[in-house]
Amino acid sequence: MSTSSVVNRPEPKRAKGVYLAFVLGNAALLLPAYFIWMRYQLLETTVGDWAVLAILACLAGVAAGVRGYHLAVRTGRSRRTTVETFAVVALVYAVGVGGAILLAANAWLDSSPARVLKMTVASHSSCSNRAGGAVYTLAGGPDVPTVDHTVGLRVAGCGQYSVGQHLALTIGGGALGRAWIVSLRPDTVTRSSP
User: Fold this and answer.
1) Which of 55, 78, 108 lies at the terminal end of a domain, its last residue?
2) Do 96 and 18 reside in the same domain of the chain?
3) What residues pair up with 108 in beta bridges, in sequence order?
4) Residue 7 lies in a domain
């Protein structure tokens, strides 16, 4: 039996510790990002919004891939595996954490006056805890600044609103020029019929 190739593997206890630190570190960054995504939703997400995230993700992926390549060359690890791992992790962080930072900045730095829109629940998806709650489609009048005068909103929890229910949707203009949802509550003012 030949022992010419030596594989450096971490000791089992150290490997478990590294894995646990990796999981906890990711949870510490990605869980707050998820809650920011849920709390500071845009009134309408456009192709431009996704393009900004795609560009951010590509830049982060390339930068991390280059870093992974240099690390692999220096340590003698597999270049392909190291580069792919670094790039994929960077893509996830760029979209998840980078998007959360942009949403938070848009909301936190917003100094525009809030507007209240009268909306009606047009439909909602079936609720799933795995999907993070239910998605409601809210219909409004011509004062709703979206293409089709509707708003898609993900709400944590199930059964908070029913189809036909009247709601008051408060929106902010956004520091980055992207209107965002400040709050949603039942509309307590009775509407008069024309």
Assistant:
1) 108
2) yes
3) none
4) no
The 3 state secondary structure assigned to the chain is CCCCCCCCCCCHHHHHHHHHHHHHHHHHHHHHHHHHHHHCCECCCCHHHHHHHHHHHHHHHHHHHHHHHHHHHHHCCCHHHHHHHHHHHHHHHHHHHHHHHHHHHHHHCCCCCCEEEEEEEEEECCCECCCCEEEEEEEECCCCCCCCCEEEEEECCCCCCCCCCEEEEEEECCCCCCCEEEEEEECCCCCCCC
- Same domain? For 75 and 45 the reply is yes
User: Is the same domain home to 147 and 78?
Assistant: no
Single-letter code of the amino acid located at 162: S
Cβ atoms of 154 and 134 closer than 8 Å: yes
The rounded mean pLDDT for the chain is: 83
- Percent residues over pLDDT 90 in the chain: 35
Which of 108, 143, 166 is the C-terminal boundary of a domain?
108
Q: Please report the sign of the dihedral spanned by the C-alpha atoms of residue 57, residue 60, residue 63, residue 69.
A: negative
Q: What is the pLDDT of residue 111?
A: 95
